[in-house]
């Protein structure tokens, strides 16, 4: 199973500057574990003690994972995952 | 330094005034690696707040996909402060996540939605550190060529 994961600029130091990496997992949670094993340090930028970080957006194809079950969102072979930090402030 | 066309400044300030008293927010995209702000993209502030802004998550995805298709990146990320100075807040610094962008702040505290004086300042925010930079407004409308 191979899933394409698009990495935002701010997280590329963890991926050797790669914009797109490959990973696998049946759920988003599994995918994040796999990403962490290939690119150590990435997980804690995406997940905290409460789950997915509030100001990091993750999409499976065209949908926000918040509407697909969050960390338990299922993944299928060939789908595309995009990570985008929120653009926000005060 | 941020070099920006006068027409973009006029449009950006107009957006801030139009959204006052809520914070306005948006991006000016430019070709990847060029550091040239060219295309103003006002965004909806999904928070609709006088003290907070956030791009809606699907708007954000569409924006980044569109910029990617056009070989662009966010050269400027702008937002307005409606009652405070045009200086990044602690929240602005915590959420600044585009290391190559110029963070532009406009303050509408003096005149709100009306014409009149405004403050517009630009900053780099990298690894939690704010560095203010000069803003050079270029008026291409005056070119005779």
Can you offer a commentary on this structure?
With 90 residues, chain A is of the alpha+beta class. Chain A has one domain (3-85): Roll (Ubiquitin-like (UB roll)). Helix content of chain A is 17%, strand content 30%. A 5-stranded mixed beta sheet of chain A has the order 2-1-7-5-6, with helices on one face. A two-stranded antiparallel sheet of chain A has the order 3-4. Chain A is globular. Chain B is an alpha/beta fold and 145 residues long. Chain B has one domain: Cytidine Deaminase, domain 2, CATH 3.40.140.10. Chain B contains 3 helices and 9 strands, in the order βαβββαβαββββ. In chain B, helix 3 links the parallel strand 5 (72-81) and strand 6. The longest helix of chain B has 14 residues, at 6-19. The mean pLDDT of chain B is 95. At the A-B interface, strand 7 and strand 8 of A face strand 4, helix 2, strand 5 and helix 3 of B. Strand 8 (88-89) of chain A pairs antiparallel with strand 4 of chain B, so a sheet runs across the interface.
Brief descriptors of the model:
heterodimer; A: 90 residues; alpha+beta; Ubiquitin-like (UB roll); five-stranded mixed beta sheet; globular; B: 145 residues; Cytidine Deaminase, domain 2; six-stranded mixed beta sheet; two-stranded parallel ribbon; 9 strands
